C-alpha cells in the first residue's frame, strides 16, 4: 500500500488480501493430483464463503461506489473510462465462478484447473488494477458521505453472515489493520468477535486437504 491516500481504504485492502488468500488456497487444492477437485469443491466451505463474500464486495462496489464515482467524474471522460474498466472486469468474474460450479456438477474434472487459473488471473489482475489506478482516482473525488454509503451497503450485504465474515476477512491481517477494522464496533460486538466468532472460524475446515 505504497500510495498515500487522503481517505482510509484499509478495509478495502484487507478484503482484497482475504480474497487473494482464498484464491491461493483454491488453486492449491484443485491442483492436487491425489484428490478429485470436483469432490474438493463440492464439499469445501471455503469455496462457498469465497463466492459469497466476493459477491458481497463487488455487489457493494457496483451499487454504492462506482455509480457515485461516475457521477463525480461526469466531466472527465478519460477518468470515466477507468470506471468502465472496473465494471467490465467485474463482469468477467461471475461467468468463471458459474463455469467452475458447472464443471463440478457435471464431473468435468479436466476443466476445473484451467477455469481456476483463469479466475486467479482475472481476479488478481483486477485487484491490482483497482488498487494502483482506481483507488487513487476514487480518493481524489470521494466525500465522506460517499464512503460511508459504500460501507453501509457493504455491511448490509454481509448481513447475518457478519460472525463468519469478520474473522474470515481478518484472517492473516496485520494487527494494525485488524485494529482499524474493529475500532468502530461496540465493545459487546468486539467481545463476540474475540470470544465466539474467531474460535468458531478457527475450528472450521474451509479447504479440505489444503
Describe the SSE topology:
Blueprint: H1 10-31, H2 37-42, H3 45-64, H4 66-72, H5 77-105, H6 109-141, H7 144-158, H8 162-170, H9 175-182, H10 187-202
Helix pairs in contact: 1-3, 1-6, 3-7, 5-6, 8-10
Give a written overview of the molecule.
With 210 residues, the chain is mostly helical. The chain has one domain (10-202). 79% of the residues lie in helices and 0% in strands. The chain has helices at 10-31, 37-42, 45-64, 66-72, 77-105, 109-141, 144-158, 162-170, 175-182, 187-202. Helix 1 (10-31) packs antiparallel against helix 6 (109-141). 25% of the residues are buried.
Radius of gyration: 18 Å
Distance between the termini: 28 Å
The mean pLDDT is 93
Bulk shape? globular
Fraction in helix? over 70%
Strand content: under 5%
- Runs in which pLDDT lies below 50 for 5 or more consecutive residues are none
DSSP E strands, number = 0
Structural class by sheet pairing and helices: mainly alpha
Summarize the structure.
The chain is an all-alpha fold. Helices cover 79% and strands 0% of the residues.
Keyword list:
single chain; 0% strand; mainly alpha
Amino acid at each position: 500500500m505504497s500510495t498515500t491516500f487522503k481517505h482510509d481504504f484499509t478495509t478495502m485492502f484487507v478484503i482484497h488480501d482475504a480474497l487473494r488468500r482464498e484464491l491461493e488456497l483454491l488453486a492449491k487444492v484443485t491442483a492436487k493430483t491425489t484428490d478429485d477437485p470436483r469432490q474438493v469443491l463440492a464439499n469445501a466451505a471455503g469455496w462457498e464463503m469465497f463466492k459469497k463474500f466476493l459477491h458481497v464486495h463487488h455487489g457493494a462496489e457496483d451499487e454504492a461506489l462506482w455509480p457515485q464515482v461516475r457521477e463525480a467524474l461526469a466531466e472527465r471522460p478519460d477518468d470515466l473510462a477507468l470506471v468502465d474498466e472496473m465494471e467490465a472486469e467485474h463482469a468477467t468474474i461471475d461467468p468463471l465462478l458459474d463455469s467452475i460450479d458447472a464443471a463440478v456438477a457435471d464431473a468435468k474434472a479436466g476443466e476445473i484447473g484451467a477455469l481456476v487459473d483463469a479466475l486467479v488471473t482475472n481476479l488478481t489482475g483486477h485487484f491490482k488494477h483497482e488498487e494502483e489506478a482506481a483507488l487513487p482516482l476514487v480518493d481524489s473525488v470521494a466525500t465522506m458521505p460517499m464512503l460511508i454509503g459504500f460501507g453501509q451497503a457493504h455491511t448490509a450485504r454481509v448481513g447475518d453472515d457478519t460472525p463468519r465474515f469478520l474473522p474470515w476477512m481478518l484472517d492473516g491481517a496485520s494487527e494494525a489493520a485488524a485494529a482499524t477494522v474493529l475500532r468502530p464496533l461496540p465493545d459487546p460486538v468486539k467481545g463476540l468477535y474475540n470470544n465466539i466468532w474467531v474460535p468458531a472460524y478457527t475450528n472450521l475446515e474451509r479447504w479440505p486437504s489444503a
